[in-house]
Amino acid sequence: MVRELLNNAAKKLSFSETPLLDARILLAKAMNKENAALIFEEPDDVQKDAFNAYIEQRAKGVPLAYILGEKEFMGLSFKLNEDTLIPRPDTECLVEKVIEKCTFHAPNILDLCSGSGCIGISLVKFIDNATCDLTDISENAMKAEKENAKLNHVENRTKIFRLDILTDEIEKGYDIIVSNPPYIRSNIVPTLEVSEYEPCLALDGGSDGLDFYRVIAKKAYNALSEGGMLALEIGYDQGEDVKSLLKDFTSVEVYKDYGQNDRVIIAIK
Ligand code: GLN
Question: Which residues line ligand 1 (CB under 6 A)?
Answer without folding.
Answer: 88, 180-184, 194, 203
